[in-house]
Amino acid sequence: MSNISASRSRYNSWGDRIFDTLNVIFMLCLVVVTLYPFLNMAAVSLNDANDAVRGGIHIWPRMFTWENYKFVFNEATIFHSMFVSASRAIVGTIVSVFCTAMLAYTLSRQEFVLRKFITITFILTMYISGGLIPGFLLIRDLNLLNTFAVYIIPGIISVFNMIVIRSFIEGLPEGILESARIDGAGEFATFIRIILPLTVPALATVSLFVAVGQWNSWFDVFLYNSSNINLSTLQYELMKILQTTNTASSSQSAADAFAGAMGGVTAVTPTSIRATMTIVASLPIILVYPFLQKYFVKGMTVGGVKG
């Protein structure tokens, strides 16, 4: 009882109370700073476009409307570009994580003679690049222009993700792998049946990295598939609309010209369309993240602890 009373008295001291109060205030400020831009963008997208031009909208729409979203989803290319973005995110994540995990497992084996040389070679690619033009020429020579594979193959291996997964694998008990070998399992069977199930936290963390990168990517579409509308992604369509809205908002009369270019629609403005497209593009990742959060934290911390 005396120990409990002493701990309570220490916890209830003025120093602890001041620290807890300041900590809560700091975290609340951090939450506000983090969430406010997104909430403000959502409020603008749900507000009447002409009213939003007046400004003064913070985290709640002043004149609620769905017109901005109706306009966006009436665009002919939106749903197809969303399908392409979702397809490249799913396929690219699965292929990249699986191949990166195989490489990480190989480089984690102490008996692999060339593990240090190959590891250094891969790490050098993080600091040295061939450049934009040689990269484009390589993609052209590989006949990947105007193909869906150009979204998957060039980024199939990520050195940073490989290091995360390899560190996690090296922290696993060696006895588990030895038991699998004694039972007659080969390297590939050990990787599929033992390594993959045990590295789910690291794989989930890496999957989130890859999925966000694939979903947000638009520059590779601009470089390699800009002439093929069937392979255009949501982010690329967003980029084009943002360019149009930025140009339209550069002069006082350009907003009317923008509305006329969009078929005479006057219920939307460049500001409202920009906000709406941003919410549409970011919402899927925001919805996925809570399901991977526990794996994300564990994968980033446990991977750095060696057993």
TrEMBL record:
Residues 82-289 form the ABC transmembrane type-1 domain. GO terms for biological process: transmembrane transport. Its main location: membrane. The chain crosses the membrane at residues 21-39, 78-105, 117-136, 148-169, 190-212, 272-292. CDD domains: TM_PBP2 (cd06261). Gene3D superfamilies: MetI-like (1.10.3720.10). InterPro entries: MetI-like (IPR000515), MetI-like_sf (IPR035906). Keywords: Cell membrane, Membrane, Transmembrane, Transmembrane helix, Transport. It comes from the Bacteria. It is a multi-pass membrane protein. One of its GO terms (cellular component) is plasma membrane. It is found in: Cell membrane. Belongs to the binding-protein-dependent transport system permease family. This is Carbohydrate ABC transporter permease. It comes from Paenibacillus nanensis.
